[in-house]
Design brief:
With 115 residues, the protein is an all-alpha fold. It has six helices and no strands. α3 (33-62) runs antiparallel to α4 (64-81). The longest helix is centred in the middle third of the chain and has 30 residues, at 33-62. The relative contact order is 0.06.
Length: 115
């Protein structure tokens, strides 16, 4: 029990910290990503949408072809950032491992039934 006491103390000491204190905690005593992942992802999407829109408008001001190219690239970029890949990366690693094991077991059962 004494091996984990320092972890419990560190968690207790950081309970009263605010968002920016937790964000800038370089001693890594508190995991901010689990609590604020949705907020940071939402801010990321909003900033990407604003910047992409700005690029498209400036592209159309330069020329029609550059505007269309920028619009196409902005749509592709926005599609890639809203794909399920970031949501999967934000899940618990144990959950991902359990899901992989279930898929592997189902695949192995399917292969054994075929033989």
């Amino acid at each position: 029990m004494s091996d984990t006491s320092h972890v419990l103390e560190a968690t207790h000491m950081t309970e009263g910290k605010g968002f920016f204190e937790r964000l800038l905690d370089f001693s890594f005593q508190y995991a901010i990503t689990q609590k604020y992942a949705k907020l940071l992802y939402g801010i990321h999407l909003l900033l990407g949408l604003i910047v992409g829109t700005w690029y498209v408008f400036t592209g159309f001001q330069t020329s029609t072809s550059q505007g269309l190219l920028t619009l196409l690239l902005a749509l592709v970029g926005y599609f890639l950032t809203t794909s399920p890949a970031p949501a999967v990366a934000a899940t618990n690693p144990r959950q991902r491992l359990a899901a992989r094991r279930k898929r592997l077991d189902a695949w192995a059962r399917e292969k054994s039934e075929q033989e």
